[in-house]
């Protein structure tokens, strides 16, 4: 059975692990002034890589379950309610403080960001989950990087997932988790889908001891489109044209949601799945926010 056929037998289900974060996005209408002031607007929304992907998949009709720690503060309650309102079945674990991320978005849509960890990794929350459903299990390598307890790795190992969908998150996460840690994750599933931007892809492929030839390896190049590589085959699909980026926050997460949803709903052409990912990303970058 080919990887595509395998994905299409999984009953339209997606399980996701992640940590929600409250995002304060500052959209700057002018460059920073010498006195430190800037004209712009600040938008508060809820995000986190896996959280945004879960919402994107649920909006596209995929049966989606989200596992993760939600703060007992107002932000945690609102983040949980927002996911539920968008069709996600949330199985929350209780933490105290919601993670926060500050994002500065420039006039061309590019951004810089800094975030804290709340208290999401002060105890091994993922050990409180018996396991996830068989099928596709999606997470970000950044979650594994931040989790000093190792509980997320243990969750993947004891789950019955048939496919692990992994977003590489950042070059820093790749370097800190290291080749052994990445191999451990990839070997925990029979077949793996790996999402990366161009910088992450270069770092990942140059990490000694990692072979991605057997994986669905999706390399996003922003406005330059995306490549899907597997066992020497390659598919390419250009990005959606005519879209003016307003805020690129969440573009990769939306792409993953669109791509996975397309395949889980029966799409057999890899280029159409890539196109669905691009359409989802285009929708996100044309507005301020994460999902």
Structural class: alpha/beta
Number of strands: 13
**Shape field:** globular
Distance between the termini: 34 Å
Spatial strand arrangement across the major sheet:
5-4-1-8-9-10-11-12-13
Number of helices in the DSSP assignment: 9
Report the average pLDDT across residues.
Answer: 86
What is the topological layout?
Blueprint (H helix, E strand, L loop, with lengths): L2 H5 L5 E5 L3 E8 L11 E8 L1 H11 L3 E9 L2 H12 L3 E7 L3 E7 L5 E5 L20 E5 H6 L4 H8 L4 E5 L3 H16 L4 E7 H8 L10 E5 L5 E5 L2 E5 L13 H14 L5 H16 L6
Parallel strand pairs: 1-4, 1-8, 2-6, 4-5, 8-9, 9-10, 10-11
Antiparallel strand pairs: 2-3, 6-7, 11-12, 12-13
Helix pairs in contact: 2-8, 8-9
Label this structure with key terms:
291 residues; alpha/beta; four-stranded mixed beta sheet; 28% strand
Description of the structure:
It contains 9 helices and 13 strands. It starts with a helix and ends in a 6-residue tail after the last helix. The strands form 2 sheets. The chain has a 9-stranded mixed beta sheet with strand order 5-4-1-8-9-10-11-12-13. A 4-stranded mixed beta sheet has the order 3-2-6-7. By secondary structure, it is α/β, with parallel strands linked by helices. It has helices at residues 3-7, 49-59, 74-85, 141-146, 151-158, 171-186, 198-205, 251-264, 270-285, and strands spanning 13-17, 21-28, 40-47, 63-71, 89-95, 99-105, 111-115, 136-140, 163-167, 191-197, 216-220, 226-230, 233-237. A hairpin with a 2-residue loop joins strand 12 and strand 13 (233-237). Helices cover 33% and strands 28% of the residues. Helix 8 runs antiparallel to helix 9. 44% of the residues are buried.
